[in-house]
């Protein structure tokens, strides 16, 4: 179901948004006629509370609780909690929602309408639609909601239906929609095209590994997005335990996120030369699997000692980043579900990012707050460079010791990102483990809205 605003407000119920501290004044003023009804219903204006108000011929309006400041600080989209509690129908904001949060809350309302129904039979869920609030850029909000829906759909699809070939098909469909070009290098051709790390990681799987390369636009600065497309990660010969393998359909979350971001950029027709690179593989186990102790030579010529086949994401990204930098893009972004260390550091909600570009870092933090897309800056900490240098090869894909795992992974990628004007790496989770207002359990976009707002300044647009 498309995540869109209701087309008009002629039949939409007026919705009053009430903070807890404003409820008493409303009941003494414009809501006085409904005081007995509201008090009898036990409505206290808490987050997630909603109430229809009676009229002569049916509902005259509705109330949505907005809680207090402390409660709102704990929810990314407080109004979405009320949206889920209201009966199906169309609503228009009448009063009470601060103008400075209207766009963000409208986005959360659209997010609350998402459902992944590919494998479920039955009628569609009745919609709770919102008329676009005044002053809100409705088209922009709908574009952001559509990008989120694309990302969620891709991540939520199980690996049996979202292997490298299916991920390629999804990328091709997006490219066709916007008249973008797409080239795909598959299987043994990866070796002849000097993409050996992508080939090594994916060669054991039933579906051939591949590099997906989308281009859109032929004028303006170069912007390249690189997304990890490991469609399922067994861990390879360093096999994951069952508990750790259960969510590995989401290990292509980096690819899903860059496709969502690319969709927005192409919809908005940025004057850039956009390139999207997705190494799409499955890290499987067979006689052809790469082994612990192997030393692989990357596209850049740097050799890598494989000390853990479950640290495969940085390998496939390395070749893609090296390829990207051969064109000297003004901005380069990599997104990947890369390390458990990032989750241990900041949990599932925050998206850690790394960049040496101070302007980009500041813009990302600003846009993250504006769009309820929380990120957290982490350092390319140079003293840890020695941890990724094993001695027998140029680089180690899995340093021993267990310290600073997200940082050392970022430093590894940084070696392959030389030549870009500005580089940012996101170590994301791409998954919402527990349902929350506007954020159902399942696949999630992280950092996409922050990047969409921050990149134009970096590119001089």
Describe the structure.
- By secondary structure, the protein is an alpha/beta fold.
- The protein has two domains: 13-136, Leucine Aminopeptidase, subunit E, domain 1, CATH 3.40.220; 142-459, 3-Layer(aba) Sandwich (Aminopeptidase), CATH 3.40.630.10.
- It is 33% helix and 21% strand.
- The strands form four sheets. Strands 6, 7, 8, 9, 10, 13, 14, 15 and 17 form a nine-stranded mixed β-sheet that branches.
- β14 (351-355), α14 and β15 form a beta-alpha-beta unit.
- α4 crosses α5 (102-111), α6 (138-156) packs antiparallel against α11 and α14 crosses α16 (448-459).
- The longest helix is centred in the first third of the chain and has 19 residues, at 138-156.
- It is elongated.
- The protein starts with 12 loop residues before the first strand and ends with a helix.
- The mean pLDDT is 96.
């Amino acid at each position: 179901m498309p995540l869109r605003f209701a087309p008009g407000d002629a039949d939409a119920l007026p919705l009053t948004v009430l903070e807890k501290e404003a409820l008493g004044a409303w009941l003494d003023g414009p809501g006085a006629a409904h005081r007995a009804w509201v008090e009898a219903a036990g409505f206290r204006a808490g987050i997630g509370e909603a109430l229809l108000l009676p009229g002569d011929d049916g509902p005259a309006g509705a109330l949505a609780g907005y809680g207090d400041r402390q409660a709102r600080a704990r929810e990314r989209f407080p109004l979405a909690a009320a949206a889920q509690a209201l009966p199906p129908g169309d609503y228009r904001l009448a009063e009470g929602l601060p103008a400075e949060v209207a766009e963000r809350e409208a986005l959360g309302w659209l997010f609350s309408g998402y459902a992944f129904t590919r494998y479920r039979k039955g009628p569609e869920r009745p919609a709770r639609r919102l008329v676009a609030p005044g002053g809100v850029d409705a088209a922009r909000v709908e574009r952001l909601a559509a990008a989120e829906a694309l990302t969620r759909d891709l991540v939520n699809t199980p690996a049996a239906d979202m292997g490298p070939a299916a991920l390629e098909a999804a990328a091709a469909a997006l490219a066709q929609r916007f008249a973008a070009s797409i080239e795909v290098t598959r299987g043994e051709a990866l070796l002849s095209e000097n993409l050996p790390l992508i080939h090594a990681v994916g060669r054991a799987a039933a579906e051939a590994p591949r590099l997906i390369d989308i281009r859109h636009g032929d004028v303006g600065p170069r912007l390249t997005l690189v997304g990890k497309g490991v469609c399922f990660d067994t861990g390879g010969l360093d096999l994951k335990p069952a508990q750790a393998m259960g969510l590995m359909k989401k290990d292509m979350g980096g690819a899903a996120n860059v496709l969502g971001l690319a969709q927005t950029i192409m919809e908005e027709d940025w004057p850039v030369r956009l390139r999207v690179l997705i190494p799409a593989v499955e890290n499987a186990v067979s006689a052809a699997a790469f082994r612990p102790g192997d030393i692989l030579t990357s596209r850049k010529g740097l050799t890598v000692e494989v000390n853990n086949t479950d640290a495969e994401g940085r390998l496939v990204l390395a070749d893609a980043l090296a390829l990207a930098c051969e064109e000297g893009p003004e901005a380069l972004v990599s997104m990947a579900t890369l390390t458990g260390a990032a989750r241990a550091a900041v949990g599932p909600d925050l998206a850690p990012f790394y960049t040496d570009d101070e302007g980009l870092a500041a813009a990302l933090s600003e846009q993250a707050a504006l769009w309820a897309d929380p990120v957290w800056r982490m350092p390319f900490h140079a003293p840890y460079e020695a941890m990724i240098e094993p001695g027998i090869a140029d680089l180690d894909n899995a340093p021993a010791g267990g310290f600073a795992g997200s940082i050392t992974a970022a430093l590894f990628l940084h070696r392959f990102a030389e030549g870009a004007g500005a580089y940012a790496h996101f170590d994301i989770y791409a998954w919402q483990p527990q349902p929350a207002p506007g954020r159902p359990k399942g696949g999630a976009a992280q950092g996409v809205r922050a990047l969409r707002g921050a990149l134009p300044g970096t590119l001089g647009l």
